[in-house]
C-alpha cells in the first residue's frame, strides 16, 4: 500500500472510531438518562390471575373457555337494531366468526316481551316469560325474533365456546293494565295479572308505593317501579325454582346477567339474585365516581361497568392529555369486578376509539367490544389482533412506565409462565421512541401489532428502546 493511501486509510479509521464512540456515548447517555428519570408505578397488587367469569368449562360442550388473558365480551346489539324479528338469526350467523376471533361471551338485549311489542328494544318489560312465543302487545315475536330462534342462538353460541349473558331489567315494568290503586288513591298501570305466560302476576301491591314502603333508590321514566322488598317479587325474581332467574339460567341456559339501571334499587337485590341464581353478573351503575362503583360492586357481590375508566379515556385521548390515564379507575381498585368498554348502546363519546381499544384490551378487567365498532365502524382485522393480544399476552399485574400529554407506556407483568407485554400508546402526530424497563433480560422482543418492524433485544438489566407510530399503538413481548 502506498504511503498516501495508508495515510487516508488511517484518517478514515480514526474518523469512524470517533463517530462510533460518539454514537455509543449518545446511546448510553439516552439510556442512562431514561433510567435516571424512570418512575415505575405498580398499579395493581395481586397474584396475577386473570379475570374469571365464574365458568371455566362449557356445561354443554365441556370445552375449555378460559384463556391466559381472561376473555373478551361482545355487546351483540346496538340501539334500534333492525326490527322484524331477524336479530337473533343475525347474531347466530356471526358467533362462529366471533369465537374464531377470540370472543368468549355475548351480551344480548332484553329477551322478553315489552310494551312496545315488535318495536321495543326490551327495556320496557311486560312479561318476563314471553320470549316471542305469545300473542300480546301486538305481536308474537319480539323485535329480535321468536323463542325458538333465541334458543337456537344460545345453543349455537355454546357449541362455539361462547357464553351468553341476558340483559335483565328489574327496576321497572311497563304495559300493565289500568287499575284502582289503594296505595296512591289513583288509577295506575300496575295490573300485570293477565300476562300471557301466566307467570309472575303483579298488581299495585308489587310496585311503589305499597304496604312495605313508599319508594326505593330510584324510579325511571315514569314506569311503575318494581318493589323488591315485596315477597311476591322476590319469589318470582330469584327464589322460586320456576321463577325468572332460575328459569333463565336452568331452562333457557343463560350463563350470566347484565343488570340494567341498578341505581334504581339497592345493591342487596343483585346480591340476593347472585346468591340464589348464580352466573356471571355485571351491573350498569352509570357513575364516574370510582368510590361509588367500588361500593356498589362490593355490596352487590357483582362486577360493574367501569364508567370511571370510560370517562378518563375520553378525557385523555380526546383531550390530548394521556397523564389522565394515571387517575383512579375501577379496574385499578379491583380488576376482578371491572368490566371495561369504549362505547355501548347508550353512550358513544370517545372519538379516538382505536387507542381506547388498545388500552382496554391490554389492561386488566373484562373488556367489551361494541357490535357497531366491530362489524361496521372500525378495522376488524386490527380489533381481532388486539383481541388475540389480550387473550394470549395481557397477563399479570399492571405497572405504568411512562406518561406525558402524548405518550402512555404500561407493562403487564406476566402470570404462570406467560411473559406479559409492554403497551405503548402514542397520541401525537409523529413517531416516538422510549427506553423502558421490561420483564425480560437478554431477550429479543417484537411488536405483536405489526405497527413497528423493530426486533430489539433487551439488555441484561431488562431495559430496551421501543417505538410507536403516530396516533397509534404498539404492543411488545418476547418474540416467540
Task: State the share of residues found in helices, binned by percent.
Answer: 25-40%
Question: Which consecutive residue ranges, at least 5 long each, have pLDDT under 50?
Answer: 8-12, 14-26
Q: Termini distance?
A: 49 Å
Q: What portion of the residues fall into strands of 2 or more residues?
A: 15-25%
The dominant shape is: elongated
Radius of gyration: 27 Å
Count of extended strands: 20
Mean pLDDT across all amino acids: 93
Task: Please give the largest β-sheet.
Answer: 8 strands, parallel, barrel
What class, by secondary structure content? alpha/beta
Strand order of the largest sheet: 2-3-6-9-10-11-12-13
Tally of contiguous helical segments: 13
Describe this entry's structure for a reader.
Helices cover 30% and strands 19% of the residues. The protein has 13 helices and 20 strands. Helix 7 packs parallel to helix 8 (290-300). It is elongated.
Key phrases:
480 residues; alpha/beta; six-stranded antiparallel β-sheet
Note the topology.
Blueprint: H1 3-37, E1 41-42, E2 73-75, H2 87-92, H3 95-101, E3 105-107, E4 113-114, E5 125-127, H4 147-159, E6 163-168, E7 177-181, E8 186-191, H5 231-239, H6 244-250, E9 256-259, H7 267-276, E10 280-283, H8 290-300, E11 303-305, H9 307-318, H10 330-333, E12 338-341, H11 353-360, E13 366-370, H12 371-377, H13 380-393, E14 398-403, E15 407-412, E16 421-426, E17 432-437, E18 445-447, E19 463-468, E20 472-478
Parallel strand pairs: 2-3, 2-13, 3-6, 6-9, 9-10, 10-11, 11-12, 12-13
Antiparallel strand pairs: 1-14, 4-5, 7-8, 14-15, 15-16, 16-20, 17-19, 18-20
Helix pairs in contact: 7-8
Amino acid at each position: 500500500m502506498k504511503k498516501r493511501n495508508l495515510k487516508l486509510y488511517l484518517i478514515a479509521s480514526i474518523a469512524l472510531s470517533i463517530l462510533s464512540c460518539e454514537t455509543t456515548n449518545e446511546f448510553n447517555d439516552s439510556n442512562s438518562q431514561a433510567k435516571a428519570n424512570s418512575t415505575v408505578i405498580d398499579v395493581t397488587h395481586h397474584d396475577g390471575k386473570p379475570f374469571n367469569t365464574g365458568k371455566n368449562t362449557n356445561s354443554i360442550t365441556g370445552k375449555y373457555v378460559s384463556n391466559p388473558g381472561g376473555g373478551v365480551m361482545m355487546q351483540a346489539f346496538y340501539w334500534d337494531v333492525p326490527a322484524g324479528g331477524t336479530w337473533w338469526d343475525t347474531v347466530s350467523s356471526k358467533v362462529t366468526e366471533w369465537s374464531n376471533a377470540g370472543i368468549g361471551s355475548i351480551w344480548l338485549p332484553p329477551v322478553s316481551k315489552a310494551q312496545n311489542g315488535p318495536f321495543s328494544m326490551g327495556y320496557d318489560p311486560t312479561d318476563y316469560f314471553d320470549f316471542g312465543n305469545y300473542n300480546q302487545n301486538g305481536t308474537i315475536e319480539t323485535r329480535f325474533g321468536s323463542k325458538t330462534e333465541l334458543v337456537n342462538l344460545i345453543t349455537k353460541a355454546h357449541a362455539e365456546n361462547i357464553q351468553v349473558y341476558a340483559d335483565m331489567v328489574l327496576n321497572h315494568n311497563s304495559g300493565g293494565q289500568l287499575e284502582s290503586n289503594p296505595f296512591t288513591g289513583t288509577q295506575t298501570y300496575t295490573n300485570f295479572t293477565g300476562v300471557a305466560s301466566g307467570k309472575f302476576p303483579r298488581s299495585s301491591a308489587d310496585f311503589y308505593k305499597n304496604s312495605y314502603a313508599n319508594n326505593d333508590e330510584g324510579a325511571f321514566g315514569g314506569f311503575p317501579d318494581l318493589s323488591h322488598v315485596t315477597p311476591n317479587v322476590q319469589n318470582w325474581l330469584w327464589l322460586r325454582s320456576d321463577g325468572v332467574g332460575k328459569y333463565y339460567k336452568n331452562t333457557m341456559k343463560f350463563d350470566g346477567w347484565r343488570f340494567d339501571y341498578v341505581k334504581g334499587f339497592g345493591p342487596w337485590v343483585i346480591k340476593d339474585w347472585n346468591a340464589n341464581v348464580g352466573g356471571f353478573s355485571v351491573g350498569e351503575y352509570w357513575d364516574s365516581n370510582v368510590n361509588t362503583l367500588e361500593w356498589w360492586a362490593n355490596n352487590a357481590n357483582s362486577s360493574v361497568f367501569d364508567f370511571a375508566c370510560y370517562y378518563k379515556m375520553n378525557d385523555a385521548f380526546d383531550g390530548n392529555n394521556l397523564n389522565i390515564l394515571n387517575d383512579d379507575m375501577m379496574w385499578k381498585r379491583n380488576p376482578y369486578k371491572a368490566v371495561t368498554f369504549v362505547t355501548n348502546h347508550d353512550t358513544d363519546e370517545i372519538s379516538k376509539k382505536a387507542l381506547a381499544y388498545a388500552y382496554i384490551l391490554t389492561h386488566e378487567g373484562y373488556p367489551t367490544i361494541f357490535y357497531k365498532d366491530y362489524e361496521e365502524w372500525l378495522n376488524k382485522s386490527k380489533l381481532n389482533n388486539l383481541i388475540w393480544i389480550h387473550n394470549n399476552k395481557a397477563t399479570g399485574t399492571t405497572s405504568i412506565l411512562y406518561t406525558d400529554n402524548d405518550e402512555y407506556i404500561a407493562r403487564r407483568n406476566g402470570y404462570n409462565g406467560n411473559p406479559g407485554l409492554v403497551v405503548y400508546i402514542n397520541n401525537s402526530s409523529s413517531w416516538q421512541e422510549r427506553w423502558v424497563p421490561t420483564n425480560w433480560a437478554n431477550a429479543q422482543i417484537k411488536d405483536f401489532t405489526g405497527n413497528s418492524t423493530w426486533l430489539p433485544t433487551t439488555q441484561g438489566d431488562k431495559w430496551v428502546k421501543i417505538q410507536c407510530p403516530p396516533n397509534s399503538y404498539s404492543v411488545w413481548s418476547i418474540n416467540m
